Amino acid sequence: MPNHTLTFLGTSAGELYPGIWCRCQTCQRARELGGPNLRAQTCAYVSPGIMLDFPADVLATAARWGVPLPEVSWILVTHSHEDHLFPYHFQWRRLSGPATHTPPLDRIAPRFTPLPLMTVAGSAVACERTRVYVTEGEKPYALVTRVVEPGDVFNAAGVQVTALRANHQVPGETTLNYLLEADGRSLAYLLDTDVLLEETWEALKCRQLNVVILEATFGRAYCPGSNHMDFRKLRETRARMVGEGLLAPGCRFIATHFSPHHTPPHDETAAELAEFGVEASCDGFTVEW
Question: Which pLDDT value is given to residue 20?
Answer without folding.
Answer: 95
